[in-house]
Amino acid sequence: MSKPVLLTLVCMATAFGLPPASPTRQAANAHLSPAQAVNAQAPDSQPANARAATHSAEGSGNEGEAIFKQQCSRCHNAPDGFSPRISGTVLRHMRVRASLSRHDEQELLRFLNP
Amino acid sequence: MPRPQTHPDPASSRTALHRLLLAVAMLCAVRGAQAQDTPLLSGGVAFFSNTNGGNTSYLPLIEPLIAAPLGPRLLVESRSYLFESISPTHGPSGGYTHSFFAGLSYLQADYTVSPHLTVAGGSYLIPFGTYNERLSPVWVSNFQDGPIISSLGIMSTGTGTGAMVRGSAISKARYSVDYAAFFSSRVGNQYFASQRASGGRLSLYLPTQRLEVGLSYDRLLQGTHENFYGAHVWWEPKDTGFRLRSEFARGHHAQGYWIEADYRAQRFGGPESLVGRLEPVFRIQQSFRRDTIVSDGLPSANTQRADFGLDYNLPHNTRILTSYSRQFASTGNTNIWETGIVYRFLFPAWKGR
pLDDT by residue (tens digit) across A62-79? Predict the structure, then answer.
């Protein structure tokens, strides 16, 4: 068996055997990240590990979810979960990187912190 | 595989580490942040292998990113890379050699002037096309390798040093327009190396159609002044799990394009099923030389390449990337096999309540 194949198999085995990584633990300890909610609810988003989660069905929540699917999933998979304490920082970073409008930023922040 | 922007020697890499530690220390100095604005640490950890023409090399890599808000309008952010390149030696004794590299991808401060205008200063990623800014992070890209033409229009280093204005010019329910314009000065320092240049990008996005089209232009303002033109089209049909991305770039000495399609098979059993985690990816790309001056990082001969990838999205922000590529050129055809695993992390800079 060639070295690349062997190394890949080892990496896969390691990944399957790993305990939950820190971001997931943080989400479990604090709140389930709403990003996971969008994963579970959005068939066309790119979740790696969608979980069922209750989420507000209010109009603003739906708008935030739609914006998440339109703006965020265009480039990358939704993170598995992250602490609500950094949701504002994530959005400020992405507002610059993805040129989000103020409205989009506010709706996404509301969506990530229902 | 991420394209290193500089290749400092090990001693210089230590200096880069010091700068990174300084940035982390600066991040720790803003502990008074508000509840949702805690500084964050993010990035990716990866291990890649690449077999090109029978030679296999390995690349353990970490790309940390920090972002720290300083008040309501200012954000400081930086991304760096540290990796060890392990490649075979071609001498009679055989074996492998390895080299360590570290450097900054960018280090910038963003100041929000108005809802439509952000001014960024420092060392920033040049906004040309889509790959450099949006797809180059190791935890985002579907392939280890960037497109062949990814070095066009980014002024050798991918980074500009100076100022940039950007934002959402128009944002309506049916369409939005965003822009970015930059001016970069010439800097010889290897960690902030950049060339004197200016340019920008304009994009139109149609949310209903999930269609984005954009144009880029920049101009090298030192040595032989050169113009670079770019265009991109991204399309993601709603509720399909399908994404189509494409980009064209034309430089003074070469031009080319790439088209990438990926499909998340979550229709089959949901995103958490064994099949739903699969993500087949295909990319076709071509580059064409316009003259014999090879100063832009593109191959010296016209090149065609087809990449067939199969990614697997594991739980806990982990992805396995595999691909086979066949490259055709008058200088020789090659097979390229790539495998790798990427873990993406994202957490607050310090433990909170």
Answer: 888 888 888 888 888 888
Region of B94 on the Ramachandran plot (φ > 0 left; ψ -120 to 50 alpha; else beta)? left
What pLDDT score does B244 carry? 97
Residue B242's pLDDT is 93
Q: CB A15 to CB B318 under 8 A?
A: yes
Note the ipTM here: 0.84
pLDDT in tens, B65-86: 999 999 999 999 999 999 999 9
**Nearest chain A CA: its distance from B154 CA (Å):** 17
Residues 6+ apart with CB under 8 A from B347: A22, A23, A26, A82, A83, A86, B40, B41, B42
d(CA B15, CA B21): 10
User: Taking the model in full, what pTM does it have?
Assistant: 0.81
* B313/A48 touch (CB, cutoff 8 Å), yes or no: yes
**Burial level of B282, CB count in 10 A (0-12/13-18/19+)?**
middle
| Cross-chain Cβ contact A70/B210 below 8 Å | yes
| A contacts of B341 (beta carbons < 8 Å) | 8, 11-12, 15
| Chain B interface includes A9 (CB < 8 A) | no
